[in-house]
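Quick one:
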Amino acid sequence: ENFEHAVFPNAMIVGDCVITHLLHKLGYLTSGKVKIMVVDTFHLFDSTMPFLEGIEAKYDFKAEVFQAEGCATKADYDAKYGADLWKVDVEEYDRVAKVEPFQRGLKTLETDVMINGRRRDHGNERAYIDIAEVAPI
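Output:
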């Protein structure tokens, strides 16, 4: 409650939907106390963005959607990077389609706290994570 710009990056996986539901029950979505951020890689399942629209309607919020820099559509992305970048250079694909939009989203939303659903049972590197971590955004 001591933060002004809380952001929840939502990948619309089951755990993220549960967190979204809880944020709604707390009134944080309709009040704008927490913003939902989504990264559209232009390589999501066809049902993903319509699913997001359904979540937005159900929980009365509008997600902040970020994509690769300078790309408003998949056609823009394909023209700039090629449709097969993810096959040709997976590291570059991750950078332009995931990492950069994610970091830009946090900066654009002036994030001072990020909510996530990382769990200790999601791999050895997470086995000893603290409940809260303080890290620069």
